[in-house]
Amino acid sequence: MQDRLKYHLEKANLYNLLAKYYEHMNPEKHIHYYKKHFYHEQKVVQYYEGMKGRKESSYSGHRCYSC
Q: Residue 27: what are its φ and ψ, rounded to 5°?
């Protein structure tokens, strides 16, 4: 799962950069890359929450509220 998380993080960052670049130059490309960014960003959150859930279940006595 770590590899998939890394993959989606890299793609989200790349597409965010491209979306920002085209924001005022080419609105169609901006929307295209923003949608790709958003897709990969959602995947990052899903993987992160899944990993976080597994850690919480293995540390049932852990009470760190800043995690």
A: -55, -35
Summarize pLDDT for 15-44 with one digit per residue, the tens: 999 999 999 999 999 999 999 999 999 999
* Structure token digits, residue 20: 């920002």
In angstroms, the CA 63 to CA 10 distance is 31
For the whole model, what pTM was predicted?
Answer: 0.74
Q: Which residue has the tokens 């979306």?
A: 19
Cα separation, 54 vs 48, in Å, equals 10
Only one residue has tokens 């949608």, namely 35
DSSP the chain: -HHHHHHHHHHHHHHHHHHHHHTTT-HHHHHHHHHHHHHHHHHHHHHHHHHHHHHHHHTTT---TT-
